[in-house]
């Protein structure tokens, strides 16, 4: 995405839009993650409280997803840079 | 990935709505693409045992390859759609949809 031909007012506007999108994205990621980790980790409803096994599973699930997302982001950025250099999008 | 260009000329110092809208559409497309990539590669590469919080070596390698493949698929599908769209336009056929 090339914003070099945008004037000051347009860039300011785009910055606001990007910030709002990022926040929405983060909230969506959060609710997605809750659902995913719940579905995989919590299968025993003989008790109301989270067992320690379930709690460990949830912690690992969350941490793993965050690390995964970071890694995908890094690779994605590399691919993008490569695409920019190659074809000139 | 900037296949959206153009827009009318802006009034001096003003905000060009067309340009902004194109940029926002592109932003949304890229964000959606990235989110789908994250979800797909997670379901394909990360086992659901969750024995530990870190990615192990196998998962890391899988993620790298998954991202590369996902990108390739995106390119190939895009090319195919565009060529099909161009073929449709050339033959004057209705139906299908116009290339981006």
UniProtKB/TrEMBL annotation, chain A:
Its annotated function is as follows:
Mitochondrial intermembrane chaperone that participates in the import and insertion of some multi-pass transmembrane proteins into the mitochondrial inner membrane. Also required for the transfer of beta-barrel precursors from the TOM complex to the sorting and assembly machinery (SAM complex) of the outer membrane. Acts as a chaperone-like protein that protects the hydrophobic precursors from aggregation and guide them through the mitochondrial intermembrane space.
UniProt-annotated location(s):
Mitochondrion inner membrane
Organism, scientific name? Crepidotus variabilis
Quaternary context:
Heterohexamer.
**Protein name, per record:** Mitochondrial import inner membrane translocase subunit
* InterPro entries xrefs: Mito_inner_translocase_sub (IPR050673), Tim10-like (IPR004217), Tim10-like_dom_sf (IPR035427)
Could you list this entry's UniProt keywords, alphabetically sorted. Chaperone, Disulfide bond, Membrane, Metal-binding, Mitochondrion, Mitochondrion inner membrane, Protein transport, Translocation, Transport, Zinc
Q: Name one Pfam family in it.
A: zf-Tim10_DDP
Membrane topology (UniProt): Peripheral membrane protein
Query: What's the domain remark here?
Result: The twin CX3C motif contains 4 conserved Cys residues that form 2 disulfide bonds in the mitochondrial intermembrane space.
GO terms (molecular function) for this protein are: metal ion binding
From TrEMBL, chain B:
Q: What's an example Gene Ontology biological process for this entry?
A: protein insertion into mitochondrial inner membrane
Q: Which residues form a coiled coil?
A: none
Q: Which InterPro entries match?
A: Tim10-like, Tim10-like_dom_sf
Does the entry feature the keyword Mitochondrion, yes or no?
yes
Question: Which GO molecular function entries does the Swiss-Prot or TrEMBL record give?
Answer: metal ion binding
Keywords, alphabetical: Chaperone, Disulfide bond, Membrane, Metal-binding, Mitochondrion, Mitochondrion inner membrane, Protein transport, Translocation, Transport, Zinc
User: Where is this gene product found?
Assistant: Mitochondrion inner membrane
Main localization is: mitochondrion
Residues covered by the Tim10-like domain: 23-83
One GO term describing the cellular component: mitochondrial inner membrane
Note the Pfam families from the entry. zf-Tim10_DDP
Its placement in the membrane is given as: Peripheral membrane protein
Biological role stated in the UniProt entry: Mitochondrial intermembrane chaperone that participates in the import and insertion of some multi-pass transmembrane proteins into the mitochondrial inner membrane. Also required for the transfer of beta-barrel precursors from the TOM complex to the sorting and assembly machinery (SAM complex) of the outer membrane. Acts as a chaperone-like protein that protects the hydrophobic precursors from aggregation and guide them through the mitochondrial intermembrane space.
The record's note on quaternary structure and interaction partners says: Heterohexamer.
Please provide the record's free-text comment about the domains of this protein: The twin CX3C motif contains 4 conserved Cys residues that form 2 disulfide bonds in the mitochondrial intermembrane space.
Family stated for the protein in its record: Belongs to the small Tim family.
By what name is this protein known?
Mitochondrial import inner membrane translocase subunit
């Amino acid at each position: 995405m090339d914003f070099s031909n945008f004037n000051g007012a347009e860039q300011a506007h785009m910055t606001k839009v990007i910030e709002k999108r990022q926040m929405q994205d983060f909230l969506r990621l959060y609710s997605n993650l809750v659902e995913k980790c719940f579905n995989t980790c919590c299968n025993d409803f003989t008790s109301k409280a989270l067992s320690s096994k379930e709690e460990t599973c949830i912690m690992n699930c969350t941490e793993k997803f965050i690390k995964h997302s970071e890694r995908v982001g890094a690779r994605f950025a590399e691919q993008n840079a490569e695409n920019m250099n190659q074809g000139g999008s | 990935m900037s296949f959206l260009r153009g827009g009318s000329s802006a009034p001096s110092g003003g905000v060009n709505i067309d340009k902004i809208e194109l940029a926002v559409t592109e932003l949304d497309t890229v964000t959606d693409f990235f989110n789908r990539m994250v979800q797909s590669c997670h379901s394909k590469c990360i086992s659901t045992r969750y024995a530990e919080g870190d990615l192990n070596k196998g998962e890391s390698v899988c993620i790298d390859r998954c991202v590369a493949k996902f990108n390739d698929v995106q390119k190939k599908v895009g090319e195919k759609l565009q060529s099909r769209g161009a073929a449709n336009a050339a033959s004057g056929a209705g139906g299908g949809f116009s290339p981006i």
